[in-house]
């Protein structure tokens, strides 16, 4: 995908604004001799940036507007180091809500819907993004926030919620609970808008079936507004990303080379109109590809394929690169196996080799040993590595309302 004239002009304006602001990137660009862009080649000379820069600029080093223009901050925490702080202007907040309302519209949600919002409110961008988009659309927001499953289900029934917004893990937990309590007939849900986590087809099918809803994946990250910068359409083939606000690139995560459309790599995003904290060529570490064909739904926004994983989630066993999504795909092929799993990687000193251990859940009706053997064989044929497999009963592995950690690498312990 080439950057178009309009986008190029917006990036040029952003760079000039950044330099004039004297912020963290102002210095970076001046040192690199960057004064603006007028061609694709100029654009591709701009250095990438990522979360490490945002940490270095903690707390407000990336702010590109005077203090009086900032109306809000959000923060994304990491496992190490400083959190990242992103300042927003009133226009940024409004632009984000506009994009989010557009997401709801693409999902066929209207002002007569009642949207139950279960992602968290506070420093991070989740709950408030879902809510601002909902209000912009004119629908009724039911701002639950996470947790308290009894109350969630009660409100869902009493208020006749038609849309549920959740992480895939929490949607699964709700679906399992509603199923267990036999309340499916009392639920009015029609659609689910699921954000912030990559998830397997098996999980998707379970949630869709148990709750009787259509599911939509929303994309976004705190550094780039938050959730709601793109969503899949009814065609269900990839997520449309709003290219009037953002420019997308896919790069080779190792070499940084820009890859042609259709090829898989790391998503890099440039904000075209963000004021508070503009980011040019931000490395998301999410892996996907741009779907080159026009979408059958008629929308012209470019499409990203379902996120395959994070370049930093990749793990290596016996020299083979693996992603949790590949393990999920394999589990999805085996009858009676749930979509929850855990991967442990350890080093066997006596044999001086790595061991991969997979713990998966299976329904009581299937034979655990046979199921384990099936997974082992599929793994061997697809990944060329034989894992140790342990099968446990359904609902044994921990569920989480936020992102679930699934890969535990004990080799550096
Ligand atoms: Zn479409």
Question: Could you walk me through the main structural features you see in this protein, from its secondary elements to its overall organization?
Answer:
With 413 residues, this protein is of the alpha/beta class. The protein is 31% helix and 27% strand. The protein is built from eleven helices and 21 strands. The protein has helices at residues 5-21, 24-31, 40-45, 51-56, 90-106, 126-137, 149-158, 168-181, 201-211, 324-332, 368-383, and strands spanning 70-76, 84-89, 114-117, 140-143, 163-166, 191-195, 214-221, 226-232, 239-241, 246-251, 265-271, 282-288, 290-291, 303-304, 309-310, 315-317, 320-322, 337-348, 353-362, 388-393, 407-409. The chain has a nine-stranded mixed sheet with strand order 4-3-5-6-7-8-9-14-13. A four-stranded antiparallel sheet has the order 10-11-12-15, with no helix packed on it. Helix 6 (126-137) links the parallel strand 3 (114-117) and strand 4 (140-143). Helix 1 crosses helix 2 (24-31), helix 5 (90-106) packs across helix 6 (126-137) and helix 8 packs across helix 9. The model has no long low-confidence stretch (mean pLDDT 92). Bound molecules: zinc ion. Zinc ion binds next to loops.
